[in-house]
Amino acid sequence: MQRCWGLPVPDLALAVAAALAAYLAMRLVLRYMIGRMRGIAQHTSNRIDDTVVEVLAGTNRAFLVLAALLVGVGMLELPERWNQRVGQLWFIAVALQAGLWFTRAIGFGLRRYEQRHSSASMTQVSASATLMSWSMRTVLWAVILLAVLSNLGVNITAFVASLGVGGIAIALAMQNILGDLFASLSIAVDKPFEVGDAIGVGGLSGTVQHVGLKTTRLRSLSGEQIVIGNTDLLKQTVKNYRRMDERRIAFKFGVSYRSTPEQLEAIPGIVKRLIESRPSLRLDRVHFQAFGESSLDFEVVYFVTTPDYGLYMDEQQRLNLQMMREFARLGVEFAIPARSLHVLSPEGRRAVAKELATQEEE
């Protein structure tokens, strides 16, 4: 009987035929399953069937070829050592393909998450989803690698221990980067702000454009982009202006000391009437607060019922103009910072000097 590679030719022919048949059968079954699941997915709102279709469509052709070859090799009578190698190859092939399936499922889930959280003006990849996807893929392939090494006879206990020591060294070297990554996760979970929010942090302010794994980018009012590390961002107090229910305004003004008590008594009522006449404003208080160096000081506190900054500026401008008209009608003048300077004549200076000398003698 003719032999090839130490094996009977009829057995090799049978193995090749079995491999070809297995490859064609797997391709046909896979195509049928994908078509069947797509038909089901079109008539249901369930996302599980969509995920199954996406995962099956990601089956690697090299895996089908390798699986078919292993089926053919299984038809041969091989030494025990080779049969053991075939079993190891089966495990590696299935493990790698399973890893590809799970990776594709994770990517599909991330894309679905992005679609649900997209806006008409800006599509923002959620930092939490990105970090979670990266973490899941890292853990997945780490487990697959350890499983493959264990199947090949490698002592993974010592390997894992060495990885632990190396991981500590890497973590120490990358502690700033890892700090920003965890800060990004904290921002994503706690949500102190989101894309599109107007925030102030430290002495900076702007609109959030992007929340990344390491940095957050703001667009300032003057137009430039501000990039802040996530760790540095969370170390400071963040003011989120978009989540303001209403805007509290406190301002002061001063009137001249020439004003009479009757005029001073009338001022709070005038300001109160002007504020309460506006539906978008709510008065808190108006008081004659203090005697200033060159003015009689009043303090006004009121609320704008919406956080709109433009509306606040319009209302403040209107209030200022109305106060000027009402005070002019009342005869009250706004104070101008001034100091009184008394200049003595030569005779007056001599009289003052004489008086001081007399006081010293006494």
Automatic annotation (TrEMBL):
PANTHER family: INNER MEMBRANE PROTEIN, YNAI-RELATED MECHANOSENSITIVE ION CHANNEL
SUPFAM superfamilies per the UniProt record, alphabetical: Mechanosensitive channel protein MscS (YggB), C-terminal domain, Mechanosensitive channel protein MscS (YggB), transmembrane region, Sm-like ribonucleoproteins
Protein name: MscS Mechanosensitive ion channel
Protein family: Belongs to the MscS (TC 1.A.23) family.
Domain Mechanosensitive ion channel MscS: 176-243
Its membrane topology: Multi-pass membrane protein
Domain Mechanosensitive ion channel transmembrane helices 2/3 per the UniProt entry, residue ranges: 139-175
Listed Pfam families: MS_channel_1st, MS_channel_2nd, MS_channel_3rd
Gene Ontology cellular-component annotations: plasma membrane
Keywords, sorted A to Z: Cell membrane, Membrane, Transmembrane, Transmembrane helix
Subcellular location: Cell membrane
Segments forming a coiled coil: none
Ranges that cross the membrane: 12-30, 51-76, 88-110, 131-150
GO molecular function: mechanosensitive monoatomic ion channel activity
Domain spans labelled Mechanosensitive ion channel MscS C-terminal: 250-334
InterPro entries: LSM_dom_sf, MS_channel_1st, MS_channel_C, MscS_beta-dom_sf, MscS_channel_2nd, MscS_channel_C_sf, MscS_channel_TM-2
